[in-house]
Amino acid sequence: MALDATPRTTVTGRREYGKGKRFDERSFLFFLLAPGILLLLAVVVYPLIRSLVSAFFEESLLYPGMSFVGFQNIADVLANDFGALLNQTLIFTIGTTFFPFVIGMGLALVLNERFRGQRFFRGAFLIPWLIPGVVVSFLWMWIFDANYGVLNGVLTQIGIIDEPIAWLFGVDSARGALIVAKTWNSFPWMMVMLLAGLQTVPGELHEAAAIDGAGPIRRFFTVTWPHLSGIAGLVILLEFIWNFQHFDTIFVLTGGGPAGSTRTFATEVYDTAFKGYDLGHAGALGLLWMGLLMILVVVYVRFSERGSKD
Amino acid sequence: MTVNLNRRDLLRFGAVGFGSLALLGGTAGCATSPVGTATLDPNAAAADFAFASWGMSEDATKPVLLAAANSFAKSEGVAVTTPSYPFNDYLSQMMLQIRGGQFSGAAQLDVAWLSSLAALGKLVDLSSYAEGREYTPAALAAGKNEGKQLGLPWTIAAIGLVTNAELLDKAGASSDPKTIEEFEDNLRALKGIGVIPYAAATKAAGLKDILVWMQTFGSPIVEGGKSALAGDEAIEAVTWYKKLYDEGLISADIDRSAARSLFAQGNAAIYDDAPVGKAGVVSQSPDGGLSDKMMPIARPVLKSGDVPQEVLWGHLVAVVDGAGSQTAAKFAQWLTSDKAQTVDYFTQLGLPPTTAPALSETAGSNDPFLASFTEKITVDAAASPLWPYVSYAQMETAIAEQVQAVLIGQSSPADAMKKASAAVDALI
Amino acid sequence: METTTMVPATALTVEAENADPKSQGRLALSARRKKPFRWALWSTLTVIGLFAFLPIYWLAVTSVTPNDQVFAYPPSLVPTEVTFEHYVSVFANPAIFGYLKNSIIVSVVTAVLSVVVSMYMGYAFSKFRFRGRKSLMYFVLSSQMFPQALLLVTLYVVFAQFGLLNTYQALIISFTTFTLPLCVWMLKGFFDALPDDLIEAAKIDGAGPWRTFHSVILPLALPGLVAAGLFAFVRGWNDFMFALTLAGPEKQTLPPGLVNTFIFEASAAWPALMAASLLVSAPVCIAFIFLQRFLVGGITAGAVKG
């Protein structure tokens, strides 16, 4: 099915086709795009503009009415430990993107091999992804609990630690615990996407490289990675955006603690809007958040576009 | 702080410290609510309404609440819907629902939430429904906001120290420590027998419990419309808490739920709870005799002779204006003050009633735990000074965060409390 | 492999099988592989397997532990006393099955709708060149960059105005929108891999663009559609905050439903929560174990471009 159709030829083909500006083709294009655009406008763009407007007003969740305050909200947010918040958000986001990717990749490489039980494992490893996320958070809270958690129980019994460790009560261990829990929940989908990517690597190329005497590691970088980089880039990008956004695990597992060391933009926005009822400052946080994310993503896209020849 | 009624009177009348309750009704310093309160047409015909509660989603309370709602619905010939949300999400969900005009009817509220919800301007003034129902004045005060009766008191008690008498005995600890020093000696003795002496809150969600210790050390928390958290008393309280933590007298990663579990296992000797928690603790305990070993004690004081500081705990029923709100108000009145109903509620769930007749009916109940809890703790209970503020929930978060910073050694008590104080001031 | 393009509607299974012939080379190769390689394979599998399955084991153990032993410390890794009372209580609670029903309705409809909307959009991005195409593509991708907690506040009001609160529609509309970036990108990649000659040929045969898409392109894209649908399903299946807020108590899906049922004000029914989670996740897990070949096979074709 033309898996390896070279981009060049298809691009010319498409151009020719797209230039046929017959009326029915234009309306067909409109029809194709309309439903998606409509949904995005209603569910994302309108609420987004509405919230961004709030960033410049004093507005409460509790009562109607708003008064213009200019850049005051943004200044407040920047003055209030913004650096720490950004740092913590990046730690969480990078950790929960990197580890699922590494695990997903390792697993995809293994499960791309032929062996007895391969099909079973491909399915079984999906389970952590299919248990509802909020249950996953409670499960890990249960495991990490300082006073009756099974992790402490096991580590004490096999003699690695003498005293139970309060995992969720130390800055580093709480951050680590969050990354572990989120990684557990999301590595399977990384695995699936990367496994799919691996299927597109033509076996003959491996064969040829092997005959040329390339070892597995060199084969991975010279043969596999070029075919995989497209999908790997996409999953990393999406996972990064989602994790920047991620709320459930942090909310349940640490509640932003200890001492606010695991607060991220997502929990801060939630607290400001739903506990402080302050839509103005929440909007300002959202505005800064989006600005930052945009910069990161543009840099990433530029970088990855330069990397690929397409 | 407690006023010039004698103890016996207090006990009879719902047993809540009056003086500080005025805080709730009187000085909502941040009263920015531009909207008034709704009034009801008392002649409206009975209509269907909704009764929102988190109790409807908890195993223990659900059947009792459902039966109550159904029996009222039957006698009035109306239908009652019973939406419910998990406790942790309840307030924000109700806010959205009410703000969006999606909810009207009766709603269960924690006493701490009244001012936040009142700010929406949709709660009905229930003064006329409170008249002649013999609610105790203290209980009524808990449902007042800016002078209006926005909630009818359903159950009122306090959060106090509960001990495991057997463990105290085993450790040779006093069963009635009067001062903080004696209390500390107790904790050290308990540590000697290998249990967590005091399962005090250390998780962000539970650290609001430290406020009452700050009050014990003499901090007013809020004074003259400004945070007093940066004051010496509050700093001293946090320093003391940190000392307990460093000595292993209190433990990491504990909130109310963890404390109950540890206590139920016999792994913790003392913890903070409202009387309502007892049933849950006993049911999850492998020790069948735990119920008899649970003993409430008055919170120790700084100097012997001081009045113990205790924080109020309770539920209100408020009515949100809209379709069926008149019948909902009638329901709220019936639910909280009908003698048979409130006595039944008490009998089934151990939640103390709020009207004089129901209190006297249940006073002779055979629950020594509750009687002792009322006498030692509830009598001195007062509303938290932060409750009148609309952003109270976020204030708690800010304070909890800074106290945690001290506990994990990231910040000194003085620095942390300065920060917490600034955060609270910004929210006032 | 060009032959696939000749196979119309039955492409589903054919595609999935087709993923394999490619690996013949690899198969031959692996026969020549040496012991260390096998060892690396199994040790990777073991390490990740422990990480993946030990928590599930603990979930299962907790679900059969009697209430008065749940908080015992140190916990015993092998249950000393097994009870099925929690499963019985879950089965006795009709609300759980109500949540399950809601979850399945919401997730399935979300999956179908996501696939429909994103196949059109993905096709437009793949086979058409128009002004603003690139910006629109990045717009779709970036639509998830804004805090959803804030979107929720406004969406709540919007849905209230349209009378959509406390309905399945509110959830389905939101989740569908949130799945668009992934699904559009996946399907665009899939369509990219289909040669343009197909379209040209259909055009010469006199088929309009509408018919070309629906009767020539779509059948070939079926594996990709199934894969995209499965991803969209999981999005609807997992969400907590939107489901809690927009669906109302009647239409609550499993995540808020489970929390509502088992996590209390100051205690939690851990064993019952675990039992219920296992029970309700089991059918989906089993379905996905069978469907995983489509999941992988379906993305594969589009994977080249990513």
Structure characteristics:
B: 428 residues, 9-stranded mixed beta sheet, two-stranded antiparallel ribbon, 20 helices, C: 306 residues, mainly alpha, 72% helix, globular, disordered N terminus
SSE map:
The complex is a heterotrimer of chains A (310), B (428) and C (306).
Chain A: H1 7-19, H2 23-54, E1 57-59, E2 66-68, H3 72-79, H4 82-111, H5 118-124, H6 127-130, H7 133-144, H8 150-157, H9 171-199, H10 203-211, H11 216-245, H12 248-253, H13 265-275, H14 279-307
Antiparallel strand pairs in A: 1-2
Helix pairs in contact in A: 2-14, 3-14, 4-9, 4-11, 7-9, 9-11, 10-11, 11-14, 13-14
Chain B: H1 7-12, H2 18-25, E1 49-52, H3 62-76, E2 80-81, H4 87-99, E3 105-110, H5 114-118, H6 127-130, H7 137-142, E4 144-145, E5 148-149, E6 151-164, H8 165-171, H9 180-192, E7 196-199, H10 210-216, E8 222-223, E9 226-227, H11 232-246, H12 256-264, E10 268-273, H13 277-283, H14 290-293, E11 294-297, E12 310-320, H15 325-337, H16 339-349, H17 356-363, H18 368-376, E13 381-382, H19 392-407, H20 413-427
Parallel strand pairs in B: 1-2, 1-3, 7-10, 12-13
Antiparallel strand pairs in B: 3-12, 4-5, 6-10, 6-11, 6-12, 8-9
Helix pairs in contact in B: 8-9, 10-11, 12-13, 16-17, 19-20
Chain C: H1 11-18, H2 24-32, H3 35-63, H4 85-91, H5 94-127, H6 133-142, H7 148-161, H8 168-192, H9 196-204, H10 209-238, H11 241-246, H12 254-262, H13 270-300
Helix pairs in contact in C: 1-10, 1-13, 3-13, 4-13, 5-8, 5-10, 5-12, 8-10, 9-10, 10-13, 12-13
Binned strand content of chain A: under 5%
Number of helices of chain C: 13
Per DSSP E runs of 2 or more residues, the count of β-strands of chain C stands at 0
Rg of chain C (C-alpha, Å): 24 Å
What is the number of domains of chain A? 2
CATH overall fold name of the largest domain in chain A: MetI-like fold
CATH architecture of the largest domain in chain C: Orthogonal Bundle
> Any idea of the CATH class of the largest domain in chain A?
Mainly Alpha
Just name the CATH architecture of the largest domain in chain A. Answer: Orthogonal Bundle
Structural overview:
The complex is a heterotrimer of chains A (310), B (428) and C (306). Chain A is built from 14 helices and two strands. Chain A has helices at residues 7-19, 23-54, 72-79, 82-111, 118-124, 127-130, 133-144, 150-157, 171-199, 203-211, 216-245, 248-253, 265-275, 279-307, and strands at 57-59, 66-68. Chain A has a two-stranded antiparallel sheet with strand order 1-2. Chain A is globular. The model of chain A is unreliable at 1-21 (pLDDT under 50). With 428 residues, chain B is an alpha/beta fold. Chain B is built from 20 helices and 13 strands. In chain B, a hairpin with a 2-residue loop joins strand 8 and strand 9. Chain C is mostly helical. Chain C folds into two domains: 9-63; 85-302, MetI-like (MetI-like fold). Chain C is 72% helix and 0% strand. Chain C has 13 helices and no strands. Chain C has helices at 11-18, 24-32, 35-63, 85-91, 94-127, 133-142, 148-161, 168-192, 196-204, 209-238, 241-246, 254-262, 270-300. Classes of the chains: A mainly alpha (310), B alpha/beta (428), C mainly alpha (306). Chains A and C meet through helix 1, helix 2, helix 4, helix 5 and helix 6 of A and helix 2, helix 3, helix 5, helix 6 and helix 7 of C.
